[in-house]
Amino acid sequence: MVLNRMTNSMNKTSIFTALFLSMIMAISFTGCKSQKKIAAEKAQQELLAKTNKAIQDLEAMANKEYSSLDELAQDEARLNEIKSYNLEDATANDLITKVEANLASQRTALEEKLAAEQKAKEEAAKAQAQEAQKRDIYYLMDNIQGSGDTQDSNLMITEALALFSSPDVPVLIEIYNDGDIVDYDRPTTAVKYLNKLKDVQRNPDKIKEFKTDANGKITELILTKK
Amino acid sequence: MIQKIHKVIILLVLSVFLFEGNCYAQGIGHYKGDESKLYAETKQFTQFVKRFNNEEDMNGQPYPTGSYKFRELSMRKKYLEVLFDSENASLTKKLKKDFIDDVTNSKAPKFIEKRQGGYFAQVETRYLYKGKNINVTLYLRLQADSLGYKWAIFDVYSDVLQGIHKNDTSKKNFLHPMSHEIDFMNLHRAFRDPNEIEDYGVNGYKMDYLSVLFYLAKSGDLTFVTVNKVKFHIFQISGWYFSVEKFERDSYNSGWMISQLMPLKNEDMEVWTQHILQKDK
Amino acid sequence: MTNMKSIKTLSILFLCLLGLQVFGQDTPKEEPPMPPARKAAIDSLALEKVHDLSKYISKIGDKETSFSEASRVIERALELFVDDAQIGVSTLGKSQIRYFAIKKYLERLNKLNYKSVNIEWFDIQYISDLEKQPDGKYVGVITIYQKFTGVTEDGMVYKDITKKDITIYVERKTTQIGGREIGFWDVLLGDIKVSETKKG
Predict the structure, then answer these.
(1) Where are the domains of chain A?
(2) Which subunits count as partners of chain A given 3+ CB pairs below 8 Å?
(3) Rounded to two decimals, what is the model's pTM?
(4) For A174, what's the count of Cα atoms within 13 Å in the CB-facing half-sphere?
(5) Lower CB count within 10 Å: N or C terminus of chain C?
(6) pLDDT digits (tens, 9 = 90+) for C53-107
(7) Contact B44 C128 (CB under 8 A)
(8) Three-state DSSP state, A181
């Protein structure tokens, strides 16, 4: 357009000037074209770098094992970032699939592990509480035989019976356990067992485990021969 | 029959001859203090067998499975030495030595196996028979039955029981050979005198006294009173017979011990057994 | 002659048959033996029952024990036994055994009303093997020695040392407890032979 207008308005003598101008234009035009190319190449390089970095990160994540949820979350974010690049690289896309699978399975495993750890912790606390309770029960039972006086013993039996949900709660005494076979004595009841301690003046058998109801009362007592 | 009686007499004489000699004092000697005699005592027939075979330690604890001590012969000799009634002069030093040497022979040691038969118990009991005390000897043996074992009476002897059926062999009663023609009406005569009823049985007929004992108990004529004594007869050790009895005395030599011992050839075993069962009376 | 010969043959045959009857053994139905540790556990359980019994006996014989308490203890003591168990007592110098039903024996002990009863155990006992009987239950005998001292109201002291051969019956049973199947050994005492070994 400029060139046309210039051609129309300018006289022939101006042709040289026009030529000169067009030369400059041509030169300048040529200069403009090579800058674009540079920019494109740069973008290309950046993409390549981005892709390579993504591949590198993905490769790191493909078989990685995670010990914390934070670490896992970080990598999940990174994966999402990479996915948002919409890379058209086959290697990268393969890796994305792999990493997605790994992260998902790692998340499941880690969550399970953490839950188990939590449960173990709770159980340990519970076991500790049970051990304390066992000591209390044993102490009460041991008092019965220690008393030596019938009336005192009877009072202690009443006291110990209060720990049980009923006087007829089953009491099992393990006499043999080889891991395969478990043998017990004939099952007895709380009241019979406590009375026997009084009658035969013997130390109670060791408490192995016990079960309680919602009120914390013993519903089953398992003892074992020391 | 006469030959058999002769054989028994010979065996008896032989045994008396063999048993002659001085008794020789024994003692376990390993224990001290008040309870040592109780340790030494052979407390059960079970323990007699275990000591005889050397299957338990001095405290009566069975050797652990696979222990080299189980049935080991030198310790066994020591056990065997204390398993004889030391107050019985007929158990001579030589007789005991011969026996111990034989059963502990390292090439062919002999043990008592409790489940292989070859021994039985003689139990002296007392019953009331028609209001009178009578002595009855029961013979029992261990018998496999169903899921386990039991002691079962296999024979019985009592002077009274056997006496009931003792018959004067010189007086022979019989049903004459034409009895059939009178419809055996003379059976009436046969049963009129029960003392001679056996005469009417077939020749060679044998009384089964165990059935008699059971019948009398069922009929109420016989009631059990008590056990007086128990004795074991052991024929299991080949070449020997011995009896085991309980000696209750305040001594290191007490409990279940060998009360009689004699060499016995296989061919004489049967006769000797019949003698013990009092079949030759 | 022929007759004599045949009688002889017959009698020999008869003796042989008798011999078979005396010595014959049916083939035992052997089971794998119980592991020694398991047998030891049962032994000590049985021994514990025997200890319990002697504690009950002390209590029953003691004048300090009230009538109601003694009745309760007698009931508990009887729970240790099979039905119809007896105590057979033989005294020094006499060979015969006198028989008592366990219940009668315990009730009599209670009526004797000793001022005090003391039962000392000798530190020796002998436990037989456990043998299976035809019904499949195991049976064994525990031998113990005890010194009994009873002091009467007027200060008379009665002492004796006895050997006790105690029958034990052992049966493996199962039961349901809390929804689980529990295997237990039912250990019960049976006849007891008491032999006086020494006057205190």
Answers:
(1) 2-110, 127-224
(2) C
(3) 0.75
(4) 16
(5) N
(6) 999 998 898 888 899 999 999 999 999 999 999 999 988 777 778 899 999 999 9
(7) yes
(8) coil
